[in-house]
TrEMBL record:
This is Queuine tRNA-ribosyltransferase. The lineage of its organism: Bacteria, Bacillati, Bacillota, Clostridia, Lachnospirales. Keywords: Glycosyltransferase, Metal-binding, Queuosine biosynthesis, Transferase, tRNA processing, Zinc. Belongs to the queuine tRNA-ribosyltransferase family. Substrate binds at D89, S90, G91, G92, F93, D143, Q194, G221. It catalyses: 7-aminomethyl-7-carbaguanine + guanosine(34) in tRNA = 7-aminomethyl-7-carbaguanosine(34) in tRNA + guanine. It comes from the Bacteria. Pathway: tRNA modification; tRNA-queuosine biosynthesis. It comes from Cuneatibacter caecimuris. SUPFAM superfamilies: tRNA-guanine transglycosylase. Homodimer. Within each dimer, one monomer is responsible for RNA recognition and catalysis, while the other monomer binds to the replacement base PreQ1. One of its GO terms (cellular component) is cytosol. GO terms for biological process: tRNA queuosine(34) biosynthetic process.
Length: 378
């Protein structure tokens, strides 16, 4: 169940009840593609840094260790020792990114594994079956993610196919949830809006899938090459046509600035690999933009990454020490940077929720963006 607590303009502060606990929104989902956050971050760490939801990927877990393996071990929650909500991406984006290794048909997609080259077929029913085996809290519908620069005729046909697949996903999810041996019979299903940067196609698709009364709705196919301005224009156009009484999820986004802007347009859920990927390369987020800890200026810097930050890295270690670890290729350096970045994102969402509750989101966003974009490195 999704309930809006406060609205400030189009920004929404809400709670989302699931079988694995309550989610406070807006929320950033920490990305653990193969059931682990890259950078040696454990689920016990996620608990300590304020993570509400973990996100894993259907395709990658299907390839290894195999969704049947996860099912036999009690589902993803028990497998990775995480008792809070998990969202599983359908695998659609990964499948369609394998452009040289796949063929799209009405029944689904035939493709080759990027790991060992073996032939795999995945369609709406298969994606739902895999996600049911994983027993995630929220399953994503299997969709096609067309390129934002594809021909309009291709996008129209692709979106129509995605709608047909969504109907099949809903029917298969209902069947799987009714089976007596299903691990999570209360698994939720989110549908995905597509349409590239064609606003009219996006709006028509949003209106069509809204009638399916799903548990939530995602905006997919953005942050894949279009400008930030184009992304915001699509959100301005499409979000008002998605159900207000259901959570809205912007897939694969993004930077702190992207999140601040998208919240202002009514988005509730976010995920992105930026905090973990950047952290593994020594790039860490602060209220005044990113720092590159490989920079020689931090060689003798005794300060934490960010003054006043409560993450495990900032509470205990200096920029100089973390820089040394990174330069020495010690895994601890990556780990501390990833922990800091995830804490930064989770804490940013706490601030956002508080600002909406106090109906000062516009002012908060303006001040936060000014800091992030100031480049005031120190």
């Amino acid at each position: 169940m999704y309930q809006i607590i406060t609205e400030d303009g189009r920004a929404k502060r809400a709670v989302f009840e699931t079988v694995h606990g309550t989610v406070q929104t807006p929320v950033f989902m920490n990305v653990g593609t193969a059931a682990a956050i890259k950078g040696a971050v454990a689920t016990t760490d996620l608990q300590q840094i304020g993570t509400q939801i973990e996100l894993s990927n259907t395709y990658h877990l299907h390839v290894r260790p195999g969704d049947q393996v996860v099912r036999q071990l009690g589902g993803l929650h028990r497998f990775m020792v995480w008792d809070k909500p998990i969202l599983t991406d359908s695998g659609g984006f990964q499948v369609f990114s394998l452009s040289g290794l796949r063929r799209i048909k009405e029944e689904g997609v035939y493709f080759q594994s990027h790991v060992d080259g073996r032939k795999i077929f995945m369609g709406p029913e298969e994606s739902m079956q895999i996600q049911s085996n994983l027993a995630s809290t929220i399953a994503m519908a299997f969709d096609e993610c067309p390129s934002s620069v594809a021909e309009r005729s291709y996008i129209e046909n692709s979106v129509a196919r995605t709608t047909r697949w969504l109907v099949r996903c809903k029917e298969e999810m209902a069947r799987l949830n009714s089976l007596p041996d299903t691990i999570n019979p209360r698994q939720m299903l989110f549908g995905i809006n597509q349409g590239g940067v064609c606003e009219d196609i996006r709006i028509a698709h949003a209106q069509e899938i809204s009638g399916l009364d799903l548990d939530g709705y995602a905006v997919g196919g953005l942050a894949v090459g279009e400008s930030h301005e184009e992304m915001y224009q699509v959100l301005d156009a499409v979000v008002p046509h998605l159900p207000r009484n259901k959570p809205t999820y912007l897939m694969g986004v993004g930077t702190p600035a992207n999140i601040l802007e998208a919240v202002d347009r009514g988005v509730d859920f976010f995920d992105c690999v930026y905090p973990s990927r950047n952290g593994r390369h020594g790039h860490v987020y602060t209220a005044f933009g990113k720092l590159n800890l490989f920079n020689a200026r931090y060689e003798l810097d005794p300060r934490p990454i960010e003054e006043g930050c409560g993450c495990p890295a900032c509470r205990n270690y200096s920029r100089a020490y973390i820089r040394h670890l990174l330069k020495a290729k010690e895994m601890l350096g990556m780990r501390l940077c990833v922990l800091h970045n995830l804490y930064f994102y989770n804490h940013l969402m706490e601030e956002i929720r508080e600002a909406i509750e106090q109906r000062r989101y516009g002012e908060y966003k303006k001040q936060k963006l000014a800091g992030l974009l100031s480049g005031e490195q120190n």
